[in-house]
């Protein structure tokens, strides 16, 4: 990843101060199997008790939180307004008046409900940043997506976006999303499933059934299985009533 020197130095200081960084947004979605294009935008979940230190380090390097006018939101988590967002600019591109708006976004870990113990360190071959980065398994990520969606009102942009990402992660991770030709033909609802599709669904359900959930959160797994198997719509997942 091609980052400005100032950003590289900041990430190095995160390492020096043992700031726990868990990948989020595009980097995580790609790792979970969703075929997106990775750019130079950085999103990290940071433990709440470490977030003030991370913000101070950023300020020491001249980074200050950007407002929505300076840095219009374009990612799901930016609709939450709970993170701290910084503009990352490449000096070479600024010189040619390209003025890119790449971003570094730090989000409180508590927003997702993910625990530190669920995170695993990326090996060197999977991480090209100058600092240690952690990731989370699909079970932790999908559970976080549903927790976040359940706190939002039905119809909110944040809820719609994160449910869409959840559905795509499940689809690309557990089912064959490939197709032949120039475009994909959508089969009618009453078309019977093929043996391959039936087996794929059976295996997906069995894997989800094996997920270990936090105490009191079995409902997350059951809600997801119902959505995945078509017994209910993803849009019908729990949401905030008021």
Give the gist of this structure.
With 242 residues, this protein is α+β, with helices and mostly antiparallel strands.
Describe this structure in words.
37% of the residues lie in helices and 10% in strands. The protein has helices at 5-16, 26-31, 51-60, 91-95, 138-150, 157-174, 195-209, 218-228, and strands spanning 22-23, 42-46, 84-88, 102-108, 120-121, 134-135. The strands form 2 sheets. A 4-stranded mixed β-sheet has the order 1-2-4-3. The protein has a two-stranded antiparallel sheet with strand order 5-6. Helix 5 packs antiparallel against helix 6 (157-174) and helix 7 (195-209) packs antiparallel against helix 8. The longest helix has 18 residues, at 157-174. It starts with a helix and ends in a 14-residue tail after the last helix.
Helices and strands in order:
Layout: H1 5-16, E1 22-23, H2 26-31, E2 42-46, H3 51-60, E3 84-88, H4 91-95, E4 102-108, E5 120-121, E6 134-135, H5 138-150, H6 157-174, H7 195-209, H8 218-228
Parallel strand pairs: 2-4
Antiparallel strand pairs: 1-2, 3-4, 5-6
């Amino acid at each position: 990843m091609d980052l400005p020197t100032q950003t590289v130095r900041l990430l190095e200081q995160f390492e020096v101060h043992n700031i726990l960084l868990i990948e989020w947004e595009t980097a995580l979605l790609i790792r979970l199997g969703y075929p997106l294009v990775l750019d130079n935008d950085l999103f990290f979940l940071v433990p709440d008790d470490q977030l003030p230190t991370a913000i101070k380090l950023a300020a020491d390097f001249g980074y200050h939180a950007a407002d929505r006018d300076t840095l219009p939101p374009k990612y799901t988590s930016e609709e939450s307004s709970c993170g701290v967002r910084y503009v990352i600019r490449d000096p070479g591109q600024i010189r040619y008046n390209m003025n890119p708006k790449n971003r570094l976004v730090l989000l409180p870990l508590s927003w997702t409900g993910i625990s530190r113990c669920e995170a695993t360190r990326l090996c060197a071959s999977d991480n090209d940043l100058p600092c240690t980065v952690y990731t989370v398994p699909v079970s932790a990520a999908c559970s976080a997506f549903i927790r976040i969606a359940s706190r939002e009102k039905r119809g909110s942009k944040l809820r719609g976006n994160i449910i869409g990402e959840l559905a795509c992660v499940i689809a690309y991770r557990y089912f064959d999303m490939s197709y032949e030709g120039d475009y994909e033909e959508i089969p009618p609802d009453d078309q019977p499933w093929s043996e391959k599709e039936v087996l794929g669904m059976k295996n997906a359900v069995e894997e989800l059934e094996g997920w270990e959930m936090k105490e009191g959160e079995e409902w997350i797994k059951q809600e997801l299985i119902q959505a995945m198997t078509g017994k209910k719509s993803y849009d019908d997942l729990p949401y905030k009533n008021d």
